[in-house]
Every structure is written in C-alpha cells, then in structure tokens.
C-alpha cells in the first residue's frame, strides 16, 4: 500500500482545482493533513474579501487528503462550514484536517482554517464514505 504522502502527491497531481488555488501540502500522516495557500486577487468577492467558496474548497481538499491518507479511496457525503472571520488578498491560510472517527464505511473529520496571525477563519466538518478500493 502507498504511504500517506504518496497518496496525496498522486491526488494533487490530478487535482486541477487545488493546483489553481496554489495549495501546498505542509504535512500529511494517516488521518490528518496540513495545507497552506495564499489568497490571490481572483479569489475575492464583491466585498473585496475572500469568496466563501475558497475557504470551503480549501477545507474540502484538506478533508480529501486526510481521509484518503489511510490508503482507501474516500469521497465526501456531507460537509458543512462556519465562516468565523473574513480574509483578504495576500492572507496566508492554513488548513488542518483531523480525523475524529473512522469506521468501516464512514469517517468524520474536522478542518480548522487559520490565517497568518493564527486566528480562526473557518470551521469545517466532513463525513466521507470509505470504499474498499485502495490507492
């Protein structure tokens, strides 16, 4: 079976959206993943703050990498996010995904996104389906 890093590298290779967001994989281990990215000008909404879909997508990528890191293919079946504070162009965001439960067919993960001042930006929860297919 592939290592968590090999799995995430393979996923990133095929993930055009995460590449567009310029996501950097900082750390990955079984059940957890840490990512970083910088808010780009084309990620802002009409209020000149980061579009909520960016922090959502950033969190979703962290969920995907953390849940797949154990070697079994996983896809999300339910997710939610709470936006705690806005971000702006140039902010550096860090997403930390942590496994809270791992069963035979489902897993539950929490992702916390913080900014460069270590202030919480968003809180994300994701439930994944765990397939029997391995990487």
Automatic annotation (TrEMBL):
InterPro entries tied to this protein: Acyl-CoA_thioesterase_PaaI (IPR052723), HotDog_dom_sf (IPR029069), PAAI_dom (IPR003736), Thioestr_dom (IPR006683)
UniProtKB keywords: Hydrolase
GO-annotated molecular function: acyl-CoA hydrolase activity
Domain Thioesterase per the UniProt entry, residue ranges: 50-120
Superkingdom in the source lineage: Bacteria
Signal peptide: none
Keyword Nucleotidyltransferase: no
The keyword Hydrolase is annotated on this UniProt entry: yes
Protein name: Hotdog fold thioesterase
């Amino acid at each position: 079976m592939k290592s968590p890093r090999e799995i995430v590298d393979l996923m990133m290779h095929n993930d055009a959206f995460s590449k567009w967001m310029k996501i950097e994989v900082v750390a990955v281990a079984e059940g957890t993943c840490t990512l970083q990215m910088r808010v780009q000008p084309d990620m802002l909404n009409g209020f000149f703050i980061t579009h909520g879909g960016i922090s959502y997508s950033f969190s979703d990528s962290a969920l995907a990498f953390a849940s797949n890191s154990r070697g079994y293919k996983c896809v999300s079946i339910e997710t939610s996010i709470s936006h705690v504070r806005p971000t702006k162009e140039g902010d550096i965001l860090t997403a930390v995904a942590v496994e809270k439960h791992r069963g035979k067919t489902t897993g539950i993960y929490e992702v916390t996104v913080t900014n460069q001042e270590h202030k919480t930006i968003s809180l994300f929860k994701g439930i994944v389906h765990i397939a029997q297919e391995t990487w």
